[in-house]
Amino acid sequence: xxxxxxxxxxxxxxxxxxxxxxxxxxxxxxxxxxxxxxxxxxxxxxxxxxxxxxxxxxxxxxxxxxxxxxxxxxxxxxxxxxxxxxxxxxxxxxxxxxxxxxxxxxxxxxxxxxxxxxxxxxxxxxxxxxxxxxxxxxxxxxxxxxxxxxxxxxxxxxxxxxxxxxxxxxxxxxxxxxxxxxxxxxxxxxxxxxxxxxxxxxxxxxxxxxxxxxxxxxxxxxxxxxxxxxxxxxxxxxxxxxxxxxxxxxxxxxxxxxxxxxxxxxxxxxxxxxxxxxxxxxxxxxxxxxxxxxxxxxxxxxxxxxxxxxxxxxxxxxxxxxxxxxxxxxxxxxxxxxxxxxxxxxxxxxxxxxxxxxxxxxxxxxxxxxxxxxxxxxxxxx
Length: 382
Ligand code: ALA
Fold this sequence. Notes:
The chain has helices at residues 15-27, 38-58, 72-83, 98-111, 129-134, 157-163, 249-265, 267-286, 315-326, 338-344, 362-381, and strands at residues 2-3, 66-69, 89-93, 114-118, 139-145, 169-172, 191-195, 207-211, 291-293, 305-310, 328-329, 331-333, 351-355. With 382 residues, the protein is an alpha/beta fold.
């Protein structure tokens, strides 16, 4: 198997992650922060360790400003439902994933939230000045994808933040946490949502958000936190306000180990490796007839994500052939980002997406290029 679906979920996981999850399952299945017995204290320490590791990765002093959720979708829903009030106006882009577009559509329906969409260019690129021109007196925030899950295109976050004239910028770092240095996070975001199972190399069921001090995000769900239990209303302090119910302690043990692993290797080193793979892939595709490549070709402008189509194949047929005949795992279709495909000109069929990670090799890239060359020649002949 050659696994090039790292933008969906990274695989394999580092051994240290597998061992940490196993050890946590064996050592403690208690609820953290609820009881005073040793097992509960161990569980609370595990969650705290994960928070501290994420704080180190993001370069923030106070790990208490990081709340854990089950994934980036839940993190984005939490911040959008928790900040947007009836009549508020919100800015976003045409490269967003449905984890932003769908909550915004629902908030438009139930709270009358108004949404303005900054149209990206055909490469998925955003002009920061477009945000400035769309600001209204009722604009509450902007929400922007840091790296597109369709083309890998990176958004100029610092410039967008400057264009927002002090309005909060919510960053969807689904594709960039663990992939690119996000520090200092305070210069690129006011709220940053992340997931643990992609670039961070942790287990599924882990994710969260960092919230700048001074921003109060209302809770999406309410329930037990193990704190202020005498009150029937949700505590209003971070992170408890956003963490009702027993968390995925075992998964967070894995996330902490994953972040330690990344910090040990160094994000720059990971980025260099993934960039080398992406460059080799793009260079190889450049010589192939009948292959259409979407998004920027300058590897500095993208994550390790490349979307293509091949003449004579629908995206699902191409992904099927790659899987069944060559043992290559990729993702085909709209990647839950239909508007991004409208932007780059691949709607409604979508694309076939290749995404690379730390454990992929140049040899794998060469083998997949050889397979695509063979497939494209067959397609042209048909
Ligand atoms: N959002 C993930 C992807 O792009 C699942 O594949």
